[in-house]
Amino acid sequence: MVPTLAATLGVKGHRPIVGTRDCKDLLYVLAVVNWVTAGVHANTLESSANAKKKTGLSKTRRMQEAFAAHLRHIGRMYPREKYPRVVVLIDNAPWHRGKPIDEAMRENPHLEFQRLPSYSPQLNPIERFWKKLRRRATHNRLFDTLADLKASIRASLCYFQAVRHKVKSLIEGRPKRKTSK
């Protein structure tokens, strides 16, 4: 719930102030962007400061289970009958492998991973989308609750569903065109 800070405009002589809270609650967003339609499908995972105590599971295991559920969601959104091959581009995060992931992949044999090289976020098209999403949903904002943060993320995801041309230009890496008349 700590806001992300970014450069902002302000009135000359007055410093903009953004509050902070010493809160360790986190909201993870798992998303996939369809390269053809620019449709965004996302799931969230709330993680409180004492989540390990509550569940008895490590962060990696909780993330593995969330990612496995996300893969099942992708499998439902892109059924094998209509989409015989769905390629999912992923990085080498520890929660992108493991028993829960293997089980989800067995349930959805039409899903296929394409792994990116280590330490190469510039090759992952969704990283550009994350940057825009965070800028729109969290920059210079303080959220009172995790639910408020989640609502802001969800609203921004809905916005990006409505402006798919912007998502498409982000994932394809095309710069914005300036029109001059």
UniProtKB/TrEMBL annotation:
Annotated Gene3D superfamilies: Ribonuclease H-like superfamily/Ribonuclease H (3.30.420.10)
Organism listed in the record: Frigoriglobus tundricola
Protein name as catalogued: Mobile element protein
InterPro entries linked to this entry: RNaseH_sf, Tc1-like_DDE_dom
Domain of life, source organism: Bacteria
GO MF annotation list: nucleic acid binding
Domain Tc1-like transposase DDE: 59-150
